[in-house]
Write a structure and sequence with these properties.
Elements lengths: L13 H8 L14 E3 L9 E5 L1 H10 L7 H6 L17 E2 L1 E2 L13 E6 L12 E8 H4 L11 E8 L16 E7 L4 E10 L6 E3 L7 E4 L2 E6 L3 E6 L4 E2 L10 E3 L5 E3 L4 E11 L20 E5 L6 E6 L9 E7 L13 E2 L2 E2 L1 E7 L5 E8 L5 E7 L7 E6 L20 E10 L2 E10 L1 E3 L2 H6 L24 E3 L1 E6 L3 H4 L3
Parallel strand pairs: 9-17
Antiparallel strand pairs: 1-23, 2-17, 3-9, 4-5, 5-31, 6-7, 7-8, 8-9, 9-10, 11-12, 12-13, 13-17, 14-17, 15-16, 18-19, 19-20, 20-23, 21-22, 24-25, 25-26, 27-28, 28-31, 29-30
């Protein structure tokens, strides 16, 4: 019921491709070093090997998680009671709302097509424990009308942060990951727990990581695992668990065969895990390991002809030169590994790789090839809770870019992922989507957890400057702007 049909995704989206390729790079205007430098990689540098969980997940799905669910179930079924039948408003579908007050600072200073903020009913907007990170949509996942299983949905990854003086354990484990499915037509959304089956598929555990980047392609959702590689989850294996509700703090299959997922009603199992051979010496933004990659963010590039590219980028907060590596994706109708990363000799195939030679602190990015054959890059750079930076650059660009010190040019929050949404049904919308993650810490949070500090007096460009309220303020937004809007693409 509601499964993805590969034939639906085989065709190239001619209209969407034309729009992207029509957005052409401008000539460089300054004699300086290039912003992006193409890399020559070693034979196996940055390549990944695949650990398959398909057999285990199939057993889990067919014999243990037998209450199967599709995307429509997740974004339309409201629960007013928990699995015990008791009233539990935490189980309801939640609603996005209009951004107001300080929240509007989390939006880009250009005309937005979409501008939403998270529900405050259960503090998704201001919690200091859960942090939104990656984003991808059915607009990129689908090959035709921007829908998957007839729904127009954005997916957002969140990681759990254990605060000072708190113990990391169970369903409050540091870097626990969940995914949120947000229906753009109804503005309703629901959180789903990401899960990894055991080797036999008789049980499952939660997944941990930063969740800095995700890509939705066909029925697969790719999620970064910063120091190791990329995990893949299959929405055709989504299932409803037996025990759910606000008081549930268990996960997996218990001794009686009942399943639970940290209180959430749905679980999304892992089917593949692409891992690099080693672990980077540092992913804190201070040192670049020449042989290993930090997987900080992801996006999907369908331009420039076959193959499609899975774009993986690094956040290097304190040093220039984070890498951008583009892995080849197989078509959904491919005879081998359909919809998955292309493999050769047991390793993923890399299309090309670049160093962001004059950038640091990139928290989201995307690539596209224009009508002149020039490879373009769009980047999000965060500046704490000051206005961030959006930068459009390309291979051969030598312009000086906007800096945080110069006051930024974009959303405060800071901005995270980037995703393109070309069509909505028969309508061409050509949208660039993004989100922000931040909060202004209230005095209560600052007094209890020293990692949250008041904004210094000299930081008068900070959105949180002089805020002394008790409660946290939200700087978390989901937004879209016109992809070809000159006010966006002329920024650097």
């Amino acid at each position: 019921m509601g499964r993805i049909r590969g034939s639906r995704l085989l065709a190239w989206i001619a209209a969407g491709a034309a729009l992207l390729t029509g957005l052409t790079a401008q000539p460089a205007t300054a004699a300086d070093s290039p912003t992006m430098t193409k890399l020559t990689l070693g034979a196996d540098q940055f390549k990944l090997t695949d650990t398959s969980f398909v057999s285990a997940t199939n057993n889990l799905y067919n014999n243990y998680l037998t209450s199967h669910a599709n995307l429509t179930d997740v974004v339309t079924t409201n629960y007013t009671t928990n699995s015990s039948g008791a009233a539990d408003s935490w189980m309801n579908l939640r609603s996005m709302r209009s951004c107001t007050g300080t929240e509007t600072k989390a939006l880009p200073p250009v005309g937005t097509k979409t501008a939403w903020c998270w529900s405050n009913a259960h503090t998704d907007d201001t919690t200091a424990h859960w942090w939104p990170q990656g984003m991808s949509t059915t607009g990129t996942a689908d090959g035709g009308d921007g829908a998957i299983q007839d729904r127009h949905v954005a997916a957002v990854s969140w990681h759990y942060r254990t605060l000072s003086n708190e113990t990391s354990a169970g369903c409050k484990t540091n870097n626990l990951l969940k995914l949120t499915f947000l229906d753009r037509d109804t503005l309703k959304y629901r959180h789903v727990l990401l899960a990894e089956p055991n080797s036999s598929g008789t049980d499952f555990s939660f997944v941990t990581g930063h969740g800095g980047g995700i890509v939705w392609y066909a029925n697969y959702i790719y999620v970064t695992d910063t120091a190791h590689g990329i995990r893949v989850f299959d929405i055709n294996k989504m299932a409803k668990v037996d025990t759910y509700g606000s008081g549930v703090s268990t996960y997996g299959i218990d001794g009686s065969g009942r399943s639970s997922a940290c209180g959430y009603p749905y679980v999304l199992p892992e089917v593949h895990y692409y891992k690099q051979a080693g672990t980077p010496s540092d992913c804190s933004g201070n040192t670049i390991d020449p042989e290993q990659l930090c997987f900080s963010w992801l996006s999907l590039d369908k331009t420039g002809g076959a193959p499609y590219k899975l774009v993986a980028g690094e956040w290097q907060g304190y040093i220039d030169g984070g890498r951008v590596v583009r892995y080849q994706l197989n078509p959904t109708g491919s005879a081998s590994y359909p919809g998955l990363l292309n493999m050769s000799g047991g390793k993923t195939v890399i299309q090309d790789a670049y160093a962001a030679s004059r950038y640091r602190g990139l928290q989201g990015g995307m690539t596209w090839t224009d009508s002149q054959g020039v490879l373009n890059f769009g980047f999000h750079k965060g500046c704490g809770t000051k206005p961030g930076v959006y930068s459009h650059t390309w291979v051969g660009d030598t312009r000086a870019s906007t800096s945080c010190a110069a006051g930024g040019n974009w959303a405060a929050g800071p901005p995270q992922a980037l995703s393109h949404w070309p069509k909505l049904g028969a309508e061409t919308v050509d949208e660039l989507w993004g989100l922000t993650e931040g909060i202004c810490a209230g005095s209560t949070l600052r007094s209890q957890h020293p990692e949250f500090k008041a904004v210094p007096e000299e930081e008068d460009t900070d959105v949180c400057w002089h805020y002394q309220g008790t409660d946290n303020l939200s700087l978390r937004a989901v937004f879209s702007v016109g992809f070809t809007d000159p006010a966006v693409q002329d920024l650097h």
